[in-house]
From TrEMBL:
Domain spans labelled Histidine-specific methyltransferase SAM-dependent: 19-323
Species for this entry: Acidipila rosea
Protein name, entry field: Dimethylhistidine N-methyltransferase
Keyword Transit peptide: no
Pfam families: Methyltransf_33
A molecular function (GO) term: methyltransferase activity
Length: 324
């Protein structure tokens, strides 16, 4: 009886997306965990803190580009009336700049934020509709790989926003696959606005992913806390160290969790024992950085025609407009 119930809870845990991913990642060589595992409630709050850190220039720089060029972006994209769609919108804090510009261009705007977090979408709807009465927000709780097709743009030109450097967390082949999938759900002439982080001095990149206050370290280590809580694992967080590396070869920042001792972890919900040697790491995230040429080629391989690029004065970040 006990055995039967243990088995059934084991199967249930393995069959959840979390269980499957953790099993795959920790039985693989080298060990890894997928970056989407970061974003439980605590991880999402830590990420919000990261975006305000002095070392994490990403959010601030993209916001400055949008503040300077939103009108130009909107008028370049709008060969007819626009409907805005945002993939992975979250609470949509930077989108206000584009919505305000769209309202200067046309009287009313429909905005479709797509995200897996219903609470973030509700917050976005309330905030935007209160502040910008000309905008109608139609949130959609979905994974952004599937949410686009169902959006009715009522004959208007769709401008799809994929900002915040989110594309950088995909492996290059997955990024092409994702953009191709998007392209297939769009009509010819629809637009994509992509925010991407640029290759820059190693020292700046490393500081952005290993801040002095230790918020990024807490964000990275939180994934182990999540496995303890949700799968009953027994990770001792003090026996791991956050570590950020720049890979010149792949143009990416890598985040790892390094085991400080040789140890054995047990994850009851997966009936899995994981051995880690001293110095061995669990690879938790890649954050790819681009050159304008690299990004244009990625867009072209995905079936988009790059049309314009806006950047900040230090060339740290770029916002690309492309046509489907
Ligand atoms: C969400 N994503 C674009 C962030 C990045 O910069 O790759 C995630 C992050 N990881 C550590 N700091 C921020």
């Amino acid at each position: 009886m006990h055995v039967a119930s243990a088995r059934s809870s084991l199967n249930t845990a393995i069959q959840t997306p979390l269980g499957e991913e953790v099993y795959r990642g920790l039985t693989g060589h080298p060990k890894s965990l997928c970056p989407w595992l970061f974003y439980d409630e605590k991880g999402s709050a830590l990420f919000e803190q990261i975006t305000a850190l002095p070392e994490y220039y990403v959010t601030r720089t993209e916001r400055a580009i949008l503040a300077d060029y939103a009108d130009e972006i909107i008028s370049t994209a709008a060969d007819r009336r626009l409907t805005l769609v945002e993939l992975g919108a979250g609470t949509a804090t930077k989108t206000g700049l584009l919505l305000e510009a769209a309202l200067r261009h046309q009287q009313r705007v429909t905005y479709h934020p797509i995200d897996v977090s219903e609470s973030a979408l509700n917050e976005a709807k309330l905030r935007i509709e209160t502040r910008l009465p000309g905008v109608t927000v139609k949130p959609r709780v979905a994974d952004y790989t599937e949410g686009l097709g169902a959006i009715d743009a009522a004959g208007q030109r769709r401008l799809v926003l994929f900002i915040g450097s989110s594309i950088g967390n995909f492996e290059p082949t997955d990024a092409v696959q994702l953009l191709r999938g998007l392209r297939q759900q769009l009509h010819a002439g629809d637009r994509l606005l992509l925010g991407v982080d640029r290759i820059k001095e190693r020292k700046l990149l490393l500081a952005a992913y290993d801040d002095k206050a230790g918020v990024t370290a807490a964000f990275n280590l939180n994934v182990l806390e999540r496995l303890n809580r949700e799968l009953g694992a027994n990770f001792n967080l003090r026996l791991f160290r956050h570590c950020a590396r720049w890979s010149e070869e792949h143009s990416r920042i890598e985040m790892h969790l390094e085991s400080l001792v040789s140890q054995q972890i047990f994850i009851p919900a997966l009936e899995l024992e994981v051995k880690l040697n001293r110095g061995e790491t669990i690879h938790t995230e890649n954050s790819y950085k681009f050159t304008p040429e690299g990004l244009s080629s990625l867009l072209e391989r995905s079936g988009f025609k790059p049309s314009r690029q806006w950047t900040d004065e230090r060339n740290w970040f770029s916002v690309f407009l492309a046509t489907a």
